[in-house]
Amino acid sequence: MRKLIAALMVLALAPLAFAAGTQDSQTVDIIIGQGTDPVILDPPMYSDTPTHNLNLVIYNRLFDLTKDGKIVPDLAVDMPTIEENGTKYTIKIRQGIKFHNGNGLNADDVLFSFNRSAFHEKSQMKSIYAMMFDVKKIDDYTISFRTGKFDPTKAPAGKSDAELKTFADRAPYYKPVSFGSQLNQLTWLGASIVDKETFEKAEQDGTLKDYGLTWAVGTGPFKFDSWNLGDSVTLIRNRDYFDTSITSNAEKLTFKTIKDPSALKTAFLNKEVDLIMSVVPLDAREIEKQGGKILSTDGYFGYHYLGFNMKSPRVGQVNSDGSPVTDGNYDLDQDSTKLRMAILYSVNPSDIVNSPDIMDKRGIVTLQYVETLPFGHIDNSAGTRIAEGNTTTGYYNPAKAKQLFDSLPASMKQPGSIKCTALSGSVYVKEALVVKDQVKKTLGVDLIEIEQVALSELATRRRNTDPKVWDLLVNWTQTDDAYYIFVAFDGFNTSLLHDTKFYSAEAQKYIDRGNSLPNGPERNLAYQNAQKEILKVMPRLPLVAMLGISASQTNIEGVEISPSGSFRLRNVARVQASK
Asked: What would the CATH number be for the domain defined by 30-51+196-299+548-574?
C-alpha cells in the first residue's frame, strides 16, 4: 500500500518537474518563449530579435560583442592586425573548428560568407561590408581586407558603386579610407560564417531554397534540429563545439512561439517557459511581484520612433509631379513639411514614458538619435532643433502645431488620411494609439488611421516605403553602434533599416565623414553635425530611449542580454531552484 501511495505521488508531481523544460540525468530542455516565429535561420537574410536569438547560438562570427559592448575574438585567433592608417585588416582564423555537419572551417568559408552577405540580392546586411574591398585569402587560415570608398575619379564615366558586385570588382575603384566601426560590424549576425561546400552542393541539388527553413548549418554551440512552423524551433547541443569554456548544461533549446502577448506572459508565470524577452514594463512589474527575474540591457540600447515616409506627398516631400525628392535638398516650407511638423509638435512622449501600460518609467524622453554612445551625442543644443524641446515633454508645442495645421489646405486635413503602420500585438501599437489620440486632441481632427501588420509585412513595408501603403511608422532601432544609427539616414543605404528613405545632401556629407573616420573627436563631431542636419528635417521623431527588458525563471542562470537586446544563450543553464 505504501508503495502504491508513493507511486501515485510521483505521478502527481511529474507535471511540475517538466513544466518549463525537462531536467533529468540525461536531458535539460530550456524553453524560450517568443511572440513571433523567426523568419529565416540564414543570418544575412533577415534582421529581427526572435530570429537573432536562434542565429546567435547556431552561428559564429570572427568576432563577438560581449554584453557590455567589448569586442573579443570568436572564430578569429586574436584581434586583427590593423595597418596602413587603419585601412588594412589581417585576421587569423582558428584551426580545428568544424561545422555542424563535420566539415572543417577555413578561409574559403569566410570569404564565401562575406561575399554572400555583401552582394546577395536578398541580403539585409549589405551595410556591414559597404566599405570593404580587396578581400583576400592569404592562406588557409588567414584573410585580409581593406576599407575604403568608391572614388569616381578612378572609374569610367557613368560607372557607379552599385554596379560593383564583388569585392574584387571594387578594388580598382575604391580608395583606402579608415572606418572606425568596421570591426564592430563584423560582430553583427550578418557577418556569420557559413559552410561554402554545403551551400554550393545545396545549390546544385536544389535544396538551397529550403536553407534556414528546414535545415541550417553553423559552427555554434547549438545546432538545428527541427522547426514546427507556427509552434516551435528546436536546437540541440553541439557536442563538438570548439569553445570548451561554455558552462551551459542544456541539451536542447526550444524556441516556443506564443503570439498572444497575454498568453506568453501567462505561460511564463505558469512556468511553462523559462525565458521571455521584450517584456513590457507593466508585465515586468507583475513578474517581479510573482518572483521572476528581470534582466535588462546595460544602459539605453535603442530608441522608439515615429517614422515619416519621406516619399509621401502628405508628410514627406515630393516634386510638383508627385515624384519623391531625390536631390537631397528639402523645402521646409512645403505643406507636407508643415503637416509633418504639426504632428511632431502634437506629440508628448512623456505620456508614453509614464504610462504603466507602456514604458512604466523604464525609459526616458529623448530628443535625439544618440543617447548614450560616445559618438554623435549632442551635448550643446544651442542653434539646433533640440533647443526647441526638453526631456520632460519632448518637442510638444500644441500652439505651434495648431498654427501650422491651420495654414494647410482642407485637402490635407481629412480624417483618417494619414496611414500609420505598427507591428501587430506589440507595444508600438499602444504608442501609435497615444500618437493618434494626441494628434486628434491637438489638431482637432482624427487624422491617423492605424494598421497592425505581421512581422514579415512590417519588413516589406520598411523596405519598400510605399507612400500608397503608409505615411507613419512606429518602431524602434538599436543604438549600440554609431554607424548603425546613421544607416537609417544614409541616402545610399538600401536595407530596411533606411525605412523613411530620407536623403539630405548636407547630412550625407557628415554621415560619410563619420563613417570613414577612426574613433575619436573628429568622428564624434561628424556624427553630431549629421544629427543636426537630420533633425532639421525630422524624418524620424525620437520618442523614448529604452532599456531592453527580459525575464527568466529563478532557476535559469548564465543568460546575458546583448547590446542589441537579444539573448546570449551560450552559457544558459538550469540550476537547482533555491528553497
From this structure: 3.40.190.10
Amino acid at 38: P
CB atoms within 10 A of CB 183: 17
Residues 6+ apart with CB under 8 A from 48: 36, 38, 39, 455, 459
Class of domain 67-96+106-191: alpha beta
Q: How far apart are CA 556 and CA 569, in angstroms?
A: 11
Q: How far apart are the first and last CA of the chain?
A: 30
- The span from the CA of 497 to the CA of 488, in Å, is 5
Within this chain, domains 30-51+196-299+548-574 and 67-96+106-191 share the same CATH topology: no
Angle at 499 between CA 420 and CA 58, to 5 degrees: 110
- For the segment 347-355, the average pLDDT, to the nearest whole number, is 96
Domain map of the chain by residue range?
Answer: 30-51+196-299+548-574, 67-96+106-191, 302-546
The predicted model gives 59-79 an average pLDDT of 92
Report H helices in 277-426.
Answer: 281-289, 335-346, 350-354, 398-406
The distance from CA 295 to its chain's CA centroid, rounded to whole angstroms, is 18
Query: Could you read off the pLDDT of 530-567 as tens digits, one per residue?
Result: 999 999 999 999 999 987 789 999 999 999 988 777 88
> Using the 8-state DSSP alphabet, how is residue 157 labeled?
T
pLDDT at 6 over 60: no
Calpha distance 102→91 (Å, rounded)? 23
Residues in the chain: 579
Helix (H, G, I), strand (E, B) or coil at 116: helix
For residue 386, give the DSSP letter.
G
User: Angle at Cα 436 formed by Cα 430 and Cα 441, nearest 5°?
Assistant: 125
Give just the sign of the alpha carbon dihedral 121, 125, 130, 136. negative
Q: How far apart are CA 477 and CA 371, in angstroms?
A: 12
Radius of gyration of the chain, Cα coordinates, nearest whole angstrom: 25
Percent of the chain beyond pLDDT 70?
A: 94
CA dist., res. 109 & res. 113, Å (int): 6
Other CB atoms within 10 A of residue 497 CB? 21
- CB of 514 closer than 8 Å to CB of 484: no
Residue 539 identity (one-letter amino acid): P
Element spanning 118, H or E: helix 107-119
CATH tag, 302-546: 3.10.105.10
